[in-house]
Amino acid sequence: MEIVKIYNAQNKMIAEQIKSLLLESGIQSTYSEVGSGQYLNVAQSMSPYGVDIMVQERDAEKASDIIHSIFESNTSANDANATVSDKPRFKDGKFKTRIAVILILLFLLGSYIFAFINQIF
After folding, report:
1. pLDDT (tens digit per residue) in 76-118
2. Secondary structure (3-state) at 119
3. Are 42 and 6 spatial neighbours (Cβ–Cβ below 8 Å)?
4. β-strand pairing of 51-56 with 3-9
5. What is the rounded CA–CA span in Å between residue 87 and residue 95?
6. Which residues contact 14 (CB under 8 A, 6 or more apart)?
């Protein structure tokens, strides 16, 4: 059996909830973080690429129906996660630059604090 992608969840927590709901319906599923998502998830607890939910090909239609029925009931509450997308959620192209600047600033701050503490003791 072939494994197919049926949905792209916003984050790992939503992916776990969907996986649990599918299991309650008798559908085995798994998820995978897209692209560099797993590294970004460690760095800032989220990924702009989301998390792909995957099932066996024979269960894909039933699983998609379950997922879409869940999100259709939430659309009245402005649930922006109901759309399936393979594109990054940050479209301005500056996401990687911002992360790099933040990491450099944190490194410099840590170095400064370390040097200051060494001078005191």
Report:
1. 545 444 444 455 555 556 777 888 889 999 999 999 898 888 8
2. helix
3. no
4. antiparallel
5. 13
6. 51, 81
